Amino acid sequence: MKYKSVKGMDDILPQDVWLWQELESRARKELESSGYVEIRTPILEETAVFIRGIGETTDIVTKEMFTFSDRKERSLTMRPEGTAPIVRSYIEHSLGNISPVLRLYYIGPMFRAERPQKGRSRQFHQIGVEVIGSFSPYADVEVLAQLDKLLKAFGLSGYVIKLNSLGCKSDKLKFTESLKQYLADKINLLCEDCRNRVGKNVLRVLDCKKESCTQAMRGAPNILDNMCLKCARHFEEVKSSLKALGINFQETKNLVRGLDYYTATVFEITHPALGTQDAIGAGGRYDNLIKDMGGECAGAVGYALGLERIILALKGHAARKPDRNVIYIATLGDAARLEGLKISESLKDGLALPNLVVLRDMGEASLKSQMRSADRQNAKVVIILGEDEMKEKKLTIKDMRPGGSQVSVAAELVVEEVRRILC
Ligand code: HAM
Question: Is 340 in the pocket of ligand 1 (CB under 6 A)?
Answer without folding.
Answer: no
